[in-house]
Amino acid sequence: MELCSQLNYVRSLSPGKAYFYYLDDNQRMCPLQIDRTHLRAPKSGYAEAYTGNFKAKNVAPQDLAFSNPQYIEECYVSPGVDDIYCAFSLRIRANTLFPEVCADAATRETLTGLAETYKELGGYKELAKRYAKNILMATWVWRNRECRNIEIEVKTEKKNWKIADARHLEWYGTWDKKSQSALDGLTDYLTKALSDRSGYFNMDIKAKLTVGWGDEVYPSQEFLDVKESGKPTKKLAKVVLNGEEESAAYHSQKVGAAIQLIDDWWDEEADKPLRVNEYGADKEYVIARRHSSLKRDFYSLISQAEDHIESMRKANDISNDIHFIMAVLAKGGVFSGASKKNKKEE
Fold first, then answer.
1. Which of 105, 144, 277, 335 gives 20 to 30 Å between its CA and that of 39?
2. DSSP state of 87
């Protein structure tokens, strides 16, 4: 199958912005406020004393002892607060069943057939289970997962699930009976949501984090490509709570990235799941685990869609490569290939 000049899928999982708060004595939501701090950081970078070839610069000893003034934003738990909350909403739509935009009828037919066969063989349950794991494990609170306890609550139109302490749940570990029951229930819900276009599926997800007074909290950090005089060089994400004060927050993209940490199909001996990405980007090691030279990247695999359909029907089974393809389509994006005009010029 050739990738046509215009091909894109709308993401199947749409998380909202996650917001932090705590409850006062009257159970009123209160913002987790952002502090602005001036500090003097010591000079410690490589470039302060060395050139690119590891040659020492001609700097006086006093020069390396000077401070580097910084103006940043930080977030800490207020004294007297034992629990903070982080919550977000999630919409799920079965957008992998066919492309949103596709310039070629044959390509659309092939991709639709791939999704239909995948659905018939129960493939969406595998994706659903992996998304459910990250939701219930509180992967989406990132560094804040290292606190004193994390209680998770997931609410849908029909049923709710709770996890008493998400810190003890692991991707490759064995889950206790109650947690496994919640995982099974949420998996069934997400399976239907990912494969059924006839309904609407929404959930509200909340984490209750038990913390210490003065503990540091780690919201999203804003990307600043230009430094402005008199303004912090490190800014944290915020939302307006109750129409009044600003509270710390996570960008929706950061929440989505955590839920999509499901790709451990990149190698038979993979030791961790990666965020779903066309080339298997591994930020920890700064390497592409699915480099195009390996022919395990999304574009190499999707071009064999007809073969994948045939292999699924023949073996009545789904390979890891096909799970990866469908996970990328669930992530959504523009997957256009070269236009016919460019091909002729080549």
1. 144
2. E
